[in-house]
Structures are given as C-alpha cells and as structure tokens.
Amino acid sequence: MTDFSSIVGTEAWTEFLACRRDKRVFARPQAAPGRFRPLWSDWEFDAICRFTPLVESPVFRMIARGKQIPEAAYRGRESGARVSLVHQLWASGASINFSRVELFSNRVLALVRSLEASLRCPVRVHYFATPAQSQALGAHADHDEALVVQLRGEKTWALYPGSNDWPDDPEKAADLLRRNPPEVLTLGPGGWLYLPKGVYHEVRNAGPESSQHFTLGFHPLTWGTLMDQSWALARGAAPSLRDRIALDGGAAQVGDQVDRQLAELRPYVLRAFESERYGQGLTTGELAPRDGLDAADTATRFRWRRQIGDPRPTAAGVELGLPFRSLPLVLRTELAPTLAPMRQGKAFSPAELPGAPDLALALCRFLANVGVLELENAAGPA
Asked: What CATH number has the domain bearing residue 317?
C-alpha cells in the first residue's frame, strides 16, 4: 500500500503521467471502493486531535459556507473540550481541513515518499472531511497541482478544464466562471482525480453520508527554496560563511573563489535536501499492520520500539525523535505520565496504563501508526 501506481494500476498511472505532462485534468471517478481504505481509519482523526497540538496549529481549520470559522470557536482548554467543540461544529455542517497528514501516519508517509521518488518533487497531504449535504469552499483555484483520493463517501466536483490558462485577474476569472459551464463529476470511494495548477473547481458533498478525501499537493523543489533552506542552516552552524561569499577580482579568481565557497556550502545544501527525508522510503518494520490496529482492544499487547528514544519535555509539548524523519512528533504535555510505563521495555496492554482504558487504547493505536509502538507478535503490514 505504499506504491500509488500499483494501487491504481499501470494503465491508469501511465495515463495520469501523460495528463500531468500536458497539464490536463485526469479522473477515475468510480473504482474499487476499498482501494484507499488502508490509508486511513475512522479512529485516526479523534486520536490526532486528542493527543497532538493539531487543533491549535495554523494547519487546522474549519470551514462553513465558504468562510473559515474563527479559531476561538473550537479551541478549548482541555483536549476533550477541543474535540467536543470540533464535533459540535461538524454536526452543524462545518467541514474540517488540516494539512501535513503524513506527519501523523506512517502509512500516508510511506505513500508520500513513494510518490516523491516517482515524481521528483515534495508531496504534502491535506485531509478534508465534509458532512452530508454540505459544502466548504466556493469556486477557487489552487497554487499547486494536486492528486485527490476519495477515502469515504462521495464528493461532487464542478471543474473548469482549461481555466489554468485564464488571465491571472480575479475579476476576469469571475466573469469567465459565469460564462463557462463546468464539467461535473462525482468521486466515489476509491475514485481519484488529478488537477493541474490553477484549474478552477468547486466541491460539494451532495451524498447521504459524510465524505473524506486526501488532496496530495505536488510542490516543485526549486533551487531558490533549497538555497534559502541551505543559508538558514549555514547561518546557524557557520555564521561567517555568508559574509565570506562575495565576488572580488578577475574572472579566473572569481571562478576559483565561487568553487571554494560552494564547496563550503555543499554540506548545508545536502542537509536542506534531506531535511524531511525527501523521497526516502520506510521499511516494513515501520508500518504497523492496519488490520491489527483496527481490531485492537484494551487487552492487545504493545511494545515500545527500541529505535525510539526517551520523550523530551519542551514548551510545545512532549517531543519524540523518530529515526525515519527529521521532524519530531509532538504530543500533549499531559500525556507524559502515560508514556512513562510504556518505556519500561516490556509488552503492555492499554488496560494496564494510567487513565481510562479506551483513551489509552486510542493513544496506543496512534503511537503504533506513527512507528513509536509495535504490536506484539503482529504479522507484516496489511
């Protein structure tokens, strides 16, 4: 479940690549309903909200009738209050969107790494959930090309093919939207869609049940971005390096000087390139079996993975360094007492941990899904 081309089939993948080259919309609206189910389970969203600072971060937002809901409406003091407020807004018809899903699931991270290696560009995953008979944003165009995969329910897309060639003027674009009828298609579970950068679209869940989909954004890795990251790293490690990169003298001297200075900068360019393990695959040991996680109960045995170090208290929360990516996992500070008995090196069940067993089970599932815990005697990834 980590190679997108094997999920959707070689023929569809080849056709998608041709459409991407030509900047054309590509769609497979109906497909095997369960093909993307291994990527996401129903318990994951609640677990992420309860155990990480996601709801307080700028990557999380709730939207209703084309407008973003003020953050104060869903940011309570306690994790339980936050989750309750999010569910109340959801029940009133508000949609949920958060980005960087790959930071909260090794399954999604493995798919991202595979796509990065195939397409040679960084990939970021956005999660969208919309209640039945509801709509979040109105007609708009995204700044990056994207691949949409429908996880649950359905979504109806009004697309304006060719609109990526429209003038970059909001008033002219609004006039063209009025004068050009869209092409309409409905993505069912397992369906997928490719949108080139700048294609206008409007999305609605007209179905009888809630809808969930991922949008995988493709972000070109430009030299400008890479050099900015490299300079930031160099300033921290060698503050004088940037001051010394100055041109002086004749052409031959300049060439030699640039060669020397770029050689000094090279280690920081490599660090910037690898800062988020761009394109690097995960091993099967880092992927917990999906069936095992979904079937887990309070008696299921888990074990702390040996490769994971001790939790580190910080102002942001409790940080866990993960060997397969550079960004640490940040958990809520109040989870420290629950993490302590996990670190003893022996197998344990959620029922043996402090607090409510159901909440401990949700935490164990989440930590196994990001590679911190492993299921005892688990079979390979499913």
From this structure: 3.90.930.40
Kindly give the confidence (pLDDT) of every residue in the chain, 382 residues in length, as a single tens digit, with 9 standing for 90 and above. Answer: 568 999 999 999 999 999 999 999 999 998 888 899 999 999 999 999 999 999 999 999 999 988 899 999 998 777 777 899 999 999 999 999 999 999 999 999 999 999 998 998 889 999 999 999 998 887 888 888 999 999 999 999 998 888 888 887 778 888 888 888 889 999 999 999 999 998 888 899 988 999 999 999 998 776 666 666 676 666 666 656 555 554 444 444 545 665 666 677 777 776 666 666 778 888 888 899 999 999 999 999 999 998 898 999 998 899 999 888 878 899 999 999 999 999 988 999 999 999 899 999 999 999 999 999 999 876 556 6
Could you tell me if 357 and 260 lie in one domain?
Answer: no
> Are 179 and 237 members of one domain?
no
pTM of the model: 0.85
The verdict on residue 115 lying in a domain is: yes
Residue 60 near residue 227 (C-beta atoms within 8 A): no
Encoded tokens for 218: 């493709």
Q: What is the CATH number of the domain that holds 213?
A: 2.60.120.650
Is 147 contained in some domain?
Answer: yes
Look at residue 288 and tell me if it is in a domain.
yes
- Would residue 278 count as lying in a domain? no
For residue 126, the SS3 value is: strand
Give the residue numbers spanning the domain of 295: 284-375
Q: Could you give the CA distance from residue 200 to residue 183 in angstroms, rounded to a whole number?
A: 11
